[in-house]
Each structure stands twice: as C-alpha cells, then as structure tokens.
Design a protein that fits this description.
Blueprint: H1 2-24, H2 32-45, H3 55-64, H4 72-79, H5 95-116
C-alpha cells in the first residue's frame, strides 16, 4: 500500500512542479529553460541516491523544491536505510501532505498568472 501511495504522491508532486513552471512562463517570457531545470533536472536528480550529492543539494531537494518526497525519503523508510539528513522517521509519510501543499501553491500561481496575462497583441 505504501508503494502505491509513493507512486501517486510522486506523480502529484511532479504535476505541481510542472504547473508551477508553466505558471512562471506568464511573467518570464523565453525562460522555459529555468522551469526545465526543475522539472527534467529534478527527474534526473531523483535517479541517483542522495548520498552521492552534497548535503546542500539534498537539503534543497528536500525543503526548497521538495522532490525528495517523490522517492528518496519514502524509499529510505521502505528499505530501512538511514536518512543522510538525519530527519525523523515520520517525515517519510509526509509525501501526500507535501503534494497537496505544492498543488495548492502551484494552482494559486497559475490563477495569478491567468489574471495578470496580457495577450501578445496580435
């Protein structure tokens, strides 16, 4: 059951990151590479265990753009491994709450972008 929740939570977190990147395009024209660095770069980042990266990058992927909740933290708990950040064990179960928070924030950013959108004028 936990693995199924991991998959659904991971999809929701990535949907929120993609939506936030799309909302960013309302204000920053021709800045798609910035959002690609978080979406596709985050996907590449999650293919490796967090212990191969510097602690600052792992902290950023946990607390700034919480991609660690996609697979790192839940998989550490599922496999019984030690957390490189020494977080409490209950953090592995926060993925659904993080996904809901991110979806809410990215939805608000999208709505704000739609309200401020001005057409190209053509």
């Amino acid at each position: 059951m936990f693995a199924v929740v991991m998959v659904v939570t991971g999809a929701a977190i990535f949907a929120a990151v993609f939506l936030a990147g799309a909302a960013f395009q309302f204000w920053a024209s021709d800045a798609s590479e910035v959002s690609n660095s978080f979406t596709f770069g985050g996907c590449t980042l999650l293919q490796y265990p967090p212990t191969v990266f510097a602690k600052e990058l792992v902290r950023g992927a946990t607390f700034v753009v919480p991609l660690a909740f996609v697979n790192w933290l839940p998989a550490l708990w599922l496999l019984g491994r030690d957390d490189p950040l020494h977080l409490p064990g209950w953090v592995a179960f926060c993925g659904p709450a993080v996904a809901l928070l991110l979806l809410g924030l990215s939805g608000l950013a999208w709505r704000a972008g739609l309200r401020s959108y001005r057409s190209t004028g053509s």
